[in-house]
Design goal:
The chain is an alpha/beta fold. It has one domain: 5'-nuclease (Rossmann fold), CATH 3.40.50. Helix content is about 50%, strand content about 10%. It contains 7 helices and 5 strands, in the order E-H-H-E-H-H-E-H-H-E-E-H. Strands 3-2-1-4-5 form a 5-stranded parallel sheet, with helices on both faces. Helix 3 packs antiparallel against helix 4. The longest helix has 15 residues. About 5% of the residues have low confidence.
Length: about 150
C-alpha cells in the first residue's frame, strides 16, 4: 500500500503536538518500517524545514529533513503535476498539489488531519486515526523522540 502523508501529520511528530502526536507517529513509523510506502510531495520538504527550524532550530530541521529524504519517496512538483493540481476541484492549492502528487504516484490514500479539504481529490483522504483503525499493524513500532529521522 502507498500512502501520501500530508504536512500536518509530519508536523504533528516533528513539533510533538500532544493531541495528535501518537496517531501521526504510528502512521509515520509504519511507513519507516516498510509496512506501507510513505510518499511526500517535494514542495512540502521546504515548508517542513522552515517550520521545524522556527520551532526547534536549523540543526533539528536538517536532521528531520534528512530523515524524510531517507524514509519516504519524494515526488517533485513539476509543471505537469502543478497543472493537474490546478484542475482539481479543491479550494486550497497546496492540498491540490498533495492530491495530484498522490494520484501521480499511485497512492491508495492521503493521510491528513484535514480530510474535508480533500473532498475533490482523486485519492481518498483518511485521518491518521482512521488509517490505524482500518489497517491494524502486524508489528508494534517504537515512538521516535519527536523528530522525524531522529
Amino acid at each position: 500500500m502507498k500512502i501520501a502523508i500530508d504536512l500536518n501529520v509530519l508536523l504533528d511528530v516533528a513539533q510533538n503536538r500532544t493531541a495528535f502526536y501518537q496517531e501521526s507517529e504510528e502512521v509515520i513509523a509504519r511507513a519507516r518500517e516498510g509496512e506501507c510506502e510513505g510518499v511526500i510531495s517535494g514542495h512540502l520538504v521546504t515548508t517542513f524545514h522552515y517550520l521545524v527550524a522556527k520551532f526547534a532550530g536549523v540543526a533539528a530541521a536538517n536532521i528531520a529533513v534528512d530523515g524524510l529524504l531517507t524514509d519516504f519517496a519524494v515526488v517533485g512538483a513539476d509543471k505537469e503535476l502543478l497543472c493537474e493540481a490546478r484542475k482539481l476541484p479543491m479550494k486550497d492549492f497546496e492540498d491540490s498539489v498533495v492530491a495530484a502528487t498522490a494520484d501521480s504516484y499511485g497512492c491508495d490514500y492521503i493521510v491528513t488531519r484535514n480530510t474535508p479539504d480533500f473532498s475533490g481529490s482523486p485519492i481518498p483522504a483518511i485521518s491518521p486515526a482512521d488509517f490505524l483503525k482500518r489497517f491494524p499493524s502486524p508489528a508494534s513500532g517504537e515512538a521516535t523522540d519527536g523528530y522525524i529521522g531522529a
